[in-house]
Design goal:
Layout: H1 6-15, E1 19-22, H2 31-41, E2 46-49, E3 62-65, H3 71-77, H4 86-97, E4 104-105, E5 114-117, E6 138-141, E7 145-149, E8 156-159, E9 163-165, E10 171-174, H5 181-191, E11 196-203, H6 208-212, H7 222-230, E12 235-238, E13 245-247, E14 250-258, E15 266-268, E16 271-272, E17 278-279, E18 283-285, E19 287-295, E20 300-303, H8 312-332, E21 336-340, E22 349-354, H9 361-370, E23 379-383, H10 392-402, H11 406-409, E24 410-418, E25 439-447, H12 477-481
Parallel strand pairs: 1-2, 3-20, 4-12, 22-23, 23-25
Antiparallel strand pairs: 2-3, 5-19, 6-9, 7-8, 7-11, 9-10, 10-19, 11-14, 12-13, 14-19, 15-18, 16-17, 21-22, 24-25
Helix pairs in contact: 4-8
The structure holds flavin mononucleotide and manganese (II) ion.
């Protein structure tokens, strides 16, 4: 079922009535992003734009957006039924990610059909969008893969990091956060006084942006996970000018190098971000010097609108963050039953369901989660096993009815590194330092489980410390059996 390239994937979506081709002329300047925003509101189809202002007889004329911006599209891309409920999608993709398949190298592929050398590079030959009114420029890198290699080991990483085309049309400004995987690698190149090689991959297997925007552990190669999710190895070809391998069936590959020397930085940002606010201040940042572009005939550029509560990234990260936190908690804390990252919070908040058997269990859950990343999971909410963690009402009910002692039930873990894109952090605590900087977070654990210190109340049952609930109970069988008899 694997979709080797974007064209096979678009055919599948078309066949399912979930791709709309827009053939009337539209503007790359805000119009396409505004259309997509409304389509996201309506949980509509993916969109292929084939008639874009200023993009007739250019190298790239087509733009594809919204590829994985619904649960059903993600399910299709993973070869699962489109109505698979999101919690089950999380479990299914977790199983596949646990069976990685290494990529294979091939001699050549469609991405080598055309090669543009450095002197001829003009990134605006592709329909790069201006997404939001106050964006600092036109953003090229919003739904693709960014390939880098660790200078000390053979670790190859594929991440997704925003990229803005600079006015010289030959360089891409980036938000390089030190703790992201390419940030960690860049630190090492900097120490070795070598520029870091980078390849941007657009198109190819539709799950490339999926694995790229997911926070697998350092040392994990996202190409291997891509193989697992697709149940077959991805075919890679060597780049022309850098020592990196890229999918043979990609639409467009942009090769370059990035320098960490602050003297060379150029102004990047802000950008309308996943948080639902502009972020990553207008400031000097590193940039990728483009050496070469290879592309298929009639290449399709791909992107995504960030900021919608259910954008592509929010849904994917809900699935993958939940599953990698579950993996970690399974190894470290007893009694963890389920994990959910509500898409609207996009990783700032995370909910964990436990079967509580010892005091301090919720705090142990939070500590384990906070050890995982500097960028996600500001607030951890821990609830009991009777709460449906996918239902926001039940989460609020748990907080309103089981939290009473701020000293014990709410823990604050002060002075952590946090997301530079969090709008609630005072600006002076997230000034962009060398590599994009970082925010300062005071992290919060809300223990909304029933209190350990309550006295048993025999009238509520043997050992019971809490009154029985009369809400969110299953309808008794006796009632269901007579349902028709009641006249319903
Ligand atoms: C559209 C989009 C843009 C993103 N831009 C950035 C970015 O500029 N910098 C960053 O550090 N993370 C960014 N992220 C989040 C990373 O993709 C995510 O943290 C991922 O885990 C990075 O890969 P890595 O774990 O291999 O570093 C973005 C995510 C999405 C969906
Ligand atoms: Mn990674």
């Amino acid at each position: 079922m694997a979709y080797k390239d974007l064209r096979e994937w678009m055919d599948k979506l078309r066949e399912e009535g979930d791709l709309k081709e827009i053939t009337c002329e539209v503007d790359w300047d805000l119009e396409i992003a505004d259309i997509e925003q409304k389509v996201l509101d309506d949980d509509g189809p993916a969109l292929l734009f084939t008639n874009i202002k200023d993009y007739h007889k250019t190298v790239g004329e087509k733009f594809f957006i919204g590829s994985l911006a619904s649960w059903r599209k993600i399910a299709w891309s993973l070869g699962l039924p489109p109505d698979t409920p999101p919690p089950q999608l999380m479990r299914e993709q977790r199983k596949l990610a646990h069976q990685p398949i290494k990529p294979v190298q091939v001699k050549t592929g469609p991405v080598k059909e055309n090669i543009i050398h450095e002197k001829d590079v003009d990134l605006f030959q592709f329909p790069v969008l201006k997404y939001h009114e106050f964006d600092g420029g036109r953003y090229l890198s919003t739904f693709n893969g960014v390939v880098t290699k660790d200078p000390e080991s053979n670790w190859v990483n594929v991440g997704l990091y925003r990229g803005m085309v600079h006015e010289d049309k030959k360089s891409i400004g980036v938000l390089l956060v030190m703790d992201s995987h390419w940030g960690r690698m860049a630190t090492k190149y900097d120490r070795l006084n070598k520029p870091m090689e980078v390849a941007y991959v657009f198109g190819g297997n539709p799950l490339i942006p999926y694995v790229a925007c997911s926070g697998y552990e350092p040392g994990v190669c996202e190409y291997d996970i891509l193989g697992g999710l697709s149940r077959e190895p991805v075919e890679l070809v060597k780049c022309e000018t850098v020592d990196l391998y890229v999918p043979a069936h990609a639409e467009i590959v942009i090769e370059g190098t990035i320098s960490m020397d602050p003297k060379t930085f150029k102004t990047e940002g802000p950008f309308g971000e996943y948080t639902g606010y502009y972020g990553g201040l207008r400031s000097p940042k590193p940039w990728v010097k483009v050496n070469c572009i290879t592309h298929r005939n009639d290449p399709v550029l791909q992107g995504s609108v960030e900021g919608h509560p259910y954008d592509d990234g929010a849904l994917i990260e809900t699935l993958t963050h939940s599953s990698f936190v579950l993996d970690h908690l399974d190894r470290t804390v007893q009694g963890v039953l389920d994990v959910w990252v509500p898409p609207v919070t996009h990783g700032n908040d995370i909910v964990v369901k436990i079967r509580k058997t010892y005091q301090g269990q919720a705090k142990q859950v939070a500590a384990a989660i906070w050890s995982l990343t500097t960028w996600f999971f500001k607030n951890v909410l821990v609830v009991d096993e009777d709460i449906d963690i996918h239902d926001p009402d039940q989460l609020l009910w748990a907080i309103s009815s089981r939290v009473w002692d701020p000293d014990e039930d709410i823990s604050v873990f002060k002075g952590c590194q946090g997301s530079v894109l969090d709008p609630s952090i005072p600006p002076h605590l997230k000034r962009p330092a060398q590599m994009g900087g970082a925010g300062r977070w005071h992290r919060l654990c809300i223990d909304a489980t029933k209190d350990w210190r309550l006295e048993p109340q025999p009238e509520w049952g043997e050992g019971a410390k809490f009154p029985p609930a009369n809400r969110y109970l299953p309808t008794p069988k006796k009632i269901l059996d007579r349902w028709k008899e009641y006249g319903f």
